[in-house]
Design a protein that fits this description.
The structure is a homotetramer. Chain A folds into two domains: about 10-80, Arc Repressor Mutant, subunit A, CATH 1.10.10.10; about 80-125. Chain A is built from six helices and two strands. Chain A has helices spanning about 10-25, 40-45, 50-60, 80-100, 105-115, 120-125, and strands spanning about 65-70, 70-75. In chain A, strand 1 (about 65-70) and strand 2 (about 70-75) form a beta hairpin. The longest helix of chain A is centred in the last third of the chain and has 25 residues, at about 80-100. Chain A is elongated. Chain A starts with 11 loop residues before the first helix and ends with a helix. The relative contact order of chain A is 0.11. The interface of A and B includes residues 85, 86, 90, 94 and 113 of A. Chain B binds a DNA duplex through helix 3.
DNA sequence: GTGGTCTAGACCACA
DNA sequence: GTGGTCTAGACCACA
């Protein structure tokens, strides 16, 4: 259920995290559900186990999942994932909006960009 | 007129570029105006000349400045800087807006964020 | 597969780029194929890794290759290399043809030069 | 009568040489005619006398002009300039045509480029 | 191991 | 003095 873009400049471990968070937010992964083991996921995705390990550890430190030694990794409360994502998104957005403003965009243009982002698009239907 | 943050995760040469682009957009640096020489700027900023050179060459490849051996580096057309900044800004924003949408933000919330970004704030008065 | 001329006035990093572009155009290097690592190529060619890095980064900025940290450098679309080379070649040629015309060459002489360039020659058979 | 492009990547001393050669070929500068003094020309063009000096010395070594100590620089035989220019143009052209061929241009396309170079154009009328 | 950044310092052509 | 190239070597994040 995870798709990695090997050509992207975004590190693989971050791509993984974002997608797992989205799966939690969408309810596909539920609270206390066990995540695939590091080795299995690495094999399925065809990448180095170290990369999975790094993603899991980072998510644990962010409170999105928890690990039980000898048993595996599990989804923490979805509300943790949600509040984290909202907080991070909002911070990034505010920074970018200021940037866009300094780049000469008008409020009107930015409102249009928001509306455009909420237009249903073909790609979205495929998800 | 350039201030570098040695602690930042943003590379020094990119910090330089962003600030020079902003100086051009603000009209402080004008078309065909000469930029500080590689060595002088390096001395003033307390960093290695190679780092300045990298920033200047990158900006030249992006069409923001042009360099002439034996003479120096000069500001290219400000419109080049402007279109570049707008393009990059918009691309980053569109990506983030999609992200925010997936994070559960409503169009209404994002419109509010846009309006908030255009509210005059104390920091802006200091510029 | 790359041969550098240390005596040449053409910088080493540009010699490298030209030869890699030619390898892509000849189909020796295919789309998404991995290029030698910065360190390995530097060792093989007997030059400093920084010089390889400069060549690779320049090619990436020109859209000929793409790089992913931790994974390596890869050939982008060959059509990118082709259009780039055609564009550069044509620009240089137009400039030189004007020059030749001002030097007193007739259209007839230049047409002959074109035909001569397309005559099979011994060196070409050796390729 | 000499126009320098300060933004060009071609060194000023070479720009000068090319234009003086063209003036000789066009008959504007005649055999044994005296060239402007280094200092005067530097003043008129607004550039460093060293640059003029370098151009004059280079042209002398190429047999296009000759200098008489204490008297100045003089145009050598126009035929010297012409044969030099033809020789250099032809060598550069042959190299570029091969390059263009390897870049995938057909003989037909190159013949068209030649014809295009001989079309009268507005800019040429202004010379 | 992979690329990316940065320092230090040398040498070159050009102005 | 100006930019441009190159070597040597350190340190970092990522896989």
């Amino acid at each position: 259920m995870i798709k990695l873009d090997l050509q992207s400049k975004t590190p693989l471990y971050l791509q993984m995290e974002q997608q797992i968070i989205d799966l939690i937010l969408m309810g596909v992964l539920k609270e206390n559900e066990q995540l695939p083991s590091v080795r299995n996921l690495a094999r399925d995705l065809g990448i180095n186990p170290n990369t999975i390990q790094k993603a899991y550890q980072d998510m644990e430190s962010r409170g999105i999942i928890y690990s039980v030694v000898g048993r595996g990794n599990f989804v923490a409360s979805p509300s943790a994932a949600e509040s984290l994502k909202r907080r991070e998104s909002m911070a990034a957005l505010e920074k970018l909006l200021q940037d866009a403003r300094h780049a000469g965009f008008s409020a009107q243009e930015l409102h249009q960009a928001v509306d455009a982002a909420f237009q249903p698009r073909k790609e979205d239907d495929l998800l």
